[in-house]
Specification:
Layout (H helix, E strand, L loop, with lengths): L1 H16 L2 E6 L6 E6 L3 E6 L2 E3 L2 E5 L8 E3 L3 E5 L4 E6 L8 E7 L12 E4 L6 E6 L6 E7 L5 E8 L4 E5 L6 E9 L2 E9 L1
Parallel strand pairs: 1-3, 2-9
Antiparallel strand pairs: 3-7, 4-6, 5-8, 8-9, 10-11, 11-14, 12-13, 12-15, 15-16
């Protein structure tokens, strides 16, 4: 009985912690940007005209096919942290955007190890500290809001610290992915 109750509580927390975000999809959908959590959904509602919604880069893949509006909807649930870009193929210069997906502490595959970033916002040097002290090589990847890989480097941690220079990156919001063997953790950073 206790196991069934625990399962029900965990399932209820998971179901009710997810959010469905609503966006319009039409000729005024230029450079849509939204930041959501892992497990959240985005629903696009067509305005007038014939459009599709197709991912063009980043961590997730989707394709709505073509619909004529107003009224049709397309939803996608995002399960991988990072940035995914999308467009309308007939209108790529006026209908495009990106979804930035942030991990949550309860998602094991996103926070396989904990680290803190400082300072954040960053000017040039990114410093990471870990809860445990160990010497290991990490792969660092930084993605811009369009899902493009902007920085990659392999770095050896010393003790519980790791530092690297991102002075060549432009100002903006980035997603920092940190890999250690088969583990990954993701955090958002802001470059001044």
């Amino acid at each position: 009985m206790k196991i069934k109750l625990l399962f029900f509580v965990l399932l209820t927390n998971y179901v009710f912690s997810q959010t469905n975000h609503q966006l319009d999809w039409g000729m005024s959908s230029t450079n849509q940007q939204i930041t959501i959590d892992v497990g959240d959904s985005v629903t696009w509602t067509w305005g007038g005209g014939t459009h599709n919604l197709r991912s063009t880069g980043g961590v997730e893949s989707f394709d709505s096919g073509y619909f004529t509006g107003p009224g049709p909807q397309f939803s996608h649930t995002f399960t991988i942290p990072g940035v995914t870009t999308y467009i309308c193929d007939p209108h790529p210069n006026s209908m495009y955007g990106s979804v930035t997906v942030l991990g949550t502490a309860s998602t094991n595959e996103v926070y396989d190890f904990n680290f803190k970033v400082y300072p954040n916002p960053v000017i040039d040097m990114v410093n990471l500290t870990f809860e445990s002290s160990f010497e290991n090589t990490f792969k660092v990847e930084i993605y811009d809001t369009l899902g493009r890989l902007s920085f990659t480097q392999n770095k050896l941690s010393t003790g519980n610290k790791l530092s690297f220079n991102i002075s060549e990156l432009e100002r903006g919001i980035y997603i920092l992915k940190l890999y250690n063997n088969d583990k990954i953790s993701v955090q958002r950073i802001i470059k001044k």
